[in-house]
Amino acid sequence: MLIYDILKLSVDRLASDVILSPNTKPALKIDWDVVILEEYEVYTKEVLNSEILSIMTEPQKEEFLQNKEVDFWIEVEWYCRFRANAFVQKNWFWMVFRPIKNKLQELWLPQRIIDFTKKKAWIVIVTWAVWSGKSTTLATLIEHINNTSNRHIITVEDPIEYVFKNNKCVIEQREVWDNTTSFDNWLKYALRQASDVIMVWEMRDLETFRLALRAAETWNLVFATLHTSWAAESVSRIISMFPSEEKEQVRTQLAEVLVWVVWQTLIKKVWGWRVAWIELMVNNTAISNMIRKWLNHQIDWAIETWKDDWMITMKKSLEWLLEKWVITQQAFEEVQLNHQIK
What is the pTM of this model? Predict the structure, then answer.
């Protein structure tokens, strides 16, 4: 099947994505640039429609034809696993794949982030937009725990991306719809399953937020993702989800159980591929008081000015990558300009 040939080629060429659209040639994204595969013929609408449906299970086909889009994963034997998204545009089928590397890519995460995996209870939030490396960062942290401690890890994902093998830990991975009806339903029962580490792929609704806070209070290390634009905004986002009569209680809970928030996106390395550019907010005594007293507007200032609590600003993170020759001077200047960093 042509799709499998293209997916294998994407791995060989270190592509981050594969884009298949009707009546055009296949395309890869390599170092952010779209590269048309000129050696291939145009993908006709009929052939593409047929191949897209052929790689789906019957439940996936049903969801796709009903909802006009579906997320799932496939595995190309001896190559790697791919996250897949099929969708409909103008009654034509389109497809985007993202390779999920069997060997987790090196993100150059600061050691201080890795060190937080030693915590026995608290909540950790990784944030920013889609395709910013959040899932790879979380997978790296879960794998580190798996290799260095003896714990029971439970994850819920939509869909499952990185597949873990038990090492020192026992790991259960569940997928929304296939193994559980929703994030909040899964999390409710996970609290009764002798868990030590819980990974919630995405905090989507109020009940999931409630249960995640409860899990952290009941001696679980909780990892979760959010879509926010910087670290401090995550605190406001969580609190804003709750009704007014609960906000004071939630501020108190969050002040006690939040351990850190890492905002991240990806930028090009000197030698290709991409590296995590981060901002790290650590919940020290000062920030805990700011959360409790609803002084969120002061958190950015605290991240900028604190010197001894492992805080990392966007600017300091970028300077560190340049100092280590992970990124070029040109990339450094472009990111500063695009994100208005002074």
Answer: 0.70
Residue ranges, CATH 3.30.450.90, the chain: 2-100
Provide the CA 122 distance to its chain's centre, in angstroms.
Answer: 19
For domain 111-338, give the CATH number: 3.40.50.300
Cβ contacts of 64 within 8 Å, gap of 6 or more: 53, 56, 70, 86
User: Which ranges in the chain are annotated with CATH 3.40.50.300?
Assistant: 111-338
What is 2-100's CATH number?
Answer: 3.30.450.90
C-alpha distances in angstroms, 330 versus 270, 273, 335, 336? 10, 16, 9, 10
Q: 148: part of which helix (H) or strand (E)?
A: helix 134-148
Q: Where are the alpha helices (H) located in 28-131, listed in sequence order?
A: 45-54, 58-67, 111-115
pLDDT tens-digit map of 41-67: 999 999 999 999 999 999 899 999 999
Half-sphere exposure of 158 (CA within 13 A, CB side): 16
The Cα 237–Cα 245 span in angstroms is 16
